[in-house]
Amino acid sequence: MLFGYVTTRRAGTTFSMITLGIGEMVFASALMLPDFFGGEGGVSTNRSIGEPLLGISFGPARQVYYLIAVWCLISMALMYAWTQTPLGRLANAVRDNPERVAFVGYNPQRVRYLVVILSAFFAGIAGALSCINFEIVTAENVSAVRSGAVLLAAFIGGMGTFFGPIIGAVLTVFFTVALSGITKAWLLYLGLFFVLMVMYAPGGIASLLTMHAPILRRGKLGTLLPAYGVAIVPALVLLAALIATVEMIYAVQDDSAGGVATLFGLSVQPATWTPWAVTAVLWAAGGGGLRIAAGRLRAAWDLALQERQP
């Protein structure tokens, strides 16, 4: 509460920088005060200590999963209910136009302060569930990397909608857990995906979904489906070209791979010219096809928007 009162006295970039500075101060304190924070080794625990309650000890991973799932659903329901309250509406207004909120008689700093307190409450729930799941808390849990990962997920999903950060969290977990077990270049793919979102969908994936809502309500989505079906083919070809290029470059640089890249279940020798020639053809075909498909997609959108006019 004390830190929140200090940080919320400023808005925008200044608020973000102060919050980042306080987070780094906590991270440094975790290493400077090992008796309290546990130092580099952190603080470990055992979630199955104590007598089982109704046969539930939280030792098996399945029981922990259900515990986390239930608390996530409860927290999500509470957060959504809060967004429908006057304070939730004020928070949206302060985010969009704090000057106008102040003009109508509300204090933007007080609204930000209350929102920070509420967000700390739900962050505490998330931290407690993480402690139960991993049975350890280290300085990495309060580092700038962890905070940046959360912000990255929120941006990718879309910070302007309720379900946007949820979508972003699912995609981030996919990159960090599922994709990292398949390729060493998963972090590069995540970075490229983030750059594409910044360039072409700054509102996040949620904005791409919500922009179709008016057309869907009028039953005109069928006008866009053929164009999307045509556009997805060259997009997949470009994706295959990107994956082939990245994986072959990684295979050339990775001595442990023996100069062999595995692409779509096939072993490829990047030292030969054949895979590079095939990849170049994929780049040319995918780029040209997507450019043509993008023109048809724009025409389909124009037609759908015209049909919406009374």
TrEMBL record:
Cellular localization per UniProt: Cell membrane
Membrane-protein topology: Multi-pass membrane protein
Keywords (A to Z) from UniProt: Cell membrane, Lipoprotein, Membrane, Transmembrane, Transmembrane helix
Annotated GO MF terms: branched-chain amino acid transmembrane transporter activity
One of the record's GO cellular component terms: plasma membrane
Transmembrane segments: 64-82, 113-137, 149-180, 186-209, 230-253, 273-294
Protein name listed in UniProt: Putative amino acid transport system permease lipoprotein transmembrane
Protein's organism: Ralstonia solanacearum
